[in-house]
Amino acid sequence: MTETLQLYSYWRSSAAYRVRIGLNLKGLAHSIVPVHLLRDGGQQHSAGYREINPQELVPTLCHGQRRLGQSLAILEYLDEFWPEPPLLPANARARHRARALAQLVACDVHPLNNLRVLQYFEQEWNVPQPERDEWVRHWIVEGFRAAEAMLADHPSTGIFCEGDIPGLADCCLVPQVYNARRFGVDMAAYPTIERIESACLALPAFDAARPERQPDAPAPT
Predict the structure, then answer these.
(1) What tens digit of pLDDT does each residue of 115-124 get?
(2) Are 109 and 142 in contact (CB under 8 A)?
(3) Which of 59, 88, 130, 155 gives the lowest tally of CB atoms within 10 Å of its CB?
(4) How far apart are CA 61 and CA 186, in angstroms?
(5) Helix or strand run (H / E) with residue 78
(6) Residue from 104, 84, 107 nearest 167 by CA
(7) Are 102 and 168 in contact (CB under 8 A)?
(8) By three-state DSSP, how is residue 9 classified?
């Protein structure tokens, strides 16, 4: 690889967390460019960042002169550009299952809990913090109830979401578990999800992607 990889990221963004995991699983050297989603009214809304990503969201992956948005699209781009090790299984049925599990998180749970949704509740509708937090927990619980049912005792579930090689679904699941714990979701109801998370976080690729290990993470108090 001759073109550099730069990831515009925020330490606590679960979408950026997914891509950090994927880059690490691929063994791809990259630099992190922090974009603070709260400082200065949200640095993602600055004119300079808007030129990089018109959606004003993280992550953005710059591969040479290419500017790539949307975490799932980025992960599939990585898999197509650098096929080994794969993030998606070899056969169509397994690929569908991996994508379905990933999209359950990235398309159904995460958008309802996204920062801009919670900020809209606060700034436009004056929804108090406890109600906003309950909204987040409700949709995580709804998603995890389905994910646990899809994973538990399924013949394709292995050490990881799909078989014994970590991939796309795990890249999405682990950051969402981080969010669940952050908002006080009781994870005891989801033993399969917890087991998979534990197996993932034991791997250097996942461990290095943790929010608290990012260069823009606040110093421990």
Answers:
(1) 999 999 999 9
(2) yes
(3) 155
(4) 33
(5) helix 71-81
(6) 84
(7) yes
(8) strand
